[in-house]
Design goal:
By secondary structure, the chain is α/β, with parallel strands linked by helices. It has one domain: Vaccinia Virus protein VP39 (Rossmann fold). Helix content is about 35%, strand content about 25%. The strands form two sheets. A seven-stranded mixed sheet has the order 5-4-3-6-7-8-9. Strands 1-2 form a two-stranded antiparallel ribbon. Strand 3, helix 5 and strand 4 form a beta-alpha-beta unit. The longest helix is centred in the first third of the chain and has 26 residues.
Length: about 260
């Protein structure tokens, strides 16, 4: 009788161990070895594509800030594009993300980031969250990023995506970025990722003395000039970086 009970207990123990191995705490089945292997291969592929992007698209075009290169190498760009566009995620061109918006080509993201020359303690505001990719790159470099998106669906999906990927230092707000985010001003750096034919006055007001603002400035219908503004007291210093083509800043900006 004791031997029978002992065997019975052993069977129960084996069943419990099997359930622990096979099931997750939520009751979902753990990925099989084959599934894990496929997932690892997929991630390795994207890691290779990111490294290739950095070597061929960035380093060859004067992106030489190590911190920026590392950030571009770390952020999984394929997570920020529609699933059916993932194969193109690391190619040298912008990608549509819906609602008439795009994710900028990797080089432009790196160029804008490098031009700002951010410090890890900088208070940064981004206007035009889009998919959240530029915010994620900045989030690799600084402790806090505030980003505003005027299209509610994009703001919601970007917030969820950034949270899922572990970017707890990025706050997303659904609003018209033209008016900035006064609650968290003044900002060391403001980055505008949509074109405008003028610099929104509220953004200049919320920029620290000595702070930098980068914006695609010019015609919202054709091409613009990527422009770096440095605030010096009540004046501004302007530096023209390169020609670009961005989607227009919408909302209040279009009324001017």
């Amino acid at each position: 009788m004791k031997k029978h009970l002992k065997n019975h207990g052993l069977i129960i123990l084996l069943i419990v161990i099997f359930l622990i191995i096979v099931l997750t705490p939520s009751g979902e089945k753990i990925l099989s070895e084959d599934e894990i292997s496929e997932e690892s291969i997929e991630e390795d592929k994207y890691t290779h594509l990111r490294e290739q992007m950095v070597e061929t698209q960035l380093k060859t075009r004067d992106i030489n800030d190590k911190a920026v290169l590392d950030a571009m190498k770390n952020v999984p760009r394929h997570e920020f594009v529609p699933e059916n566009m993932r194969k193109q995620a690391y190619e040298d061109h912008p990608i549509p993300i819906g609602y008439g918006q795009t994710i900028s080509q990797p080089y432009i993201v790196a160029l804008m980031t490098q031009t700002l020359d951010v410090d890890e303690n900088d208070n940064i505001l981004e206007i035009g969250t889009g998919s959240g990719y530029q915010a994620a790159v900045l989030g690799e470099l600084v402790e806090k990023v505030y980003t505003i998106e005027i299209i509610e669906e994009l703001a919601t999906s970007a917030r969820e995506r950034l949270n899922r990927l572990g970017y707890e230092n990025i706050r997303v707000k659904h609003a018209d970025g033209y008016f900035g985010w006064e609650e968290h001003a003044p900002f060391d750096t403001i980055i505008v990722t949509a074109a405008a034919n003028h610099i929104p006055p509220p953004l200049l007001q919320q920029l620290k003395d000595g702070g930098k603002l980068i914006i695609p400035l010019g015609s919202t219908l054709r091409f613009q000039t990527l422009t770096l503004i440095t605030k010096v007291g009540n004046e501004t210093e302007t530096e023209f970086i390169t020609g670009v083509r961005f989607v227009p800043l919408t909302g209040e900006a279009q009324k001017k």
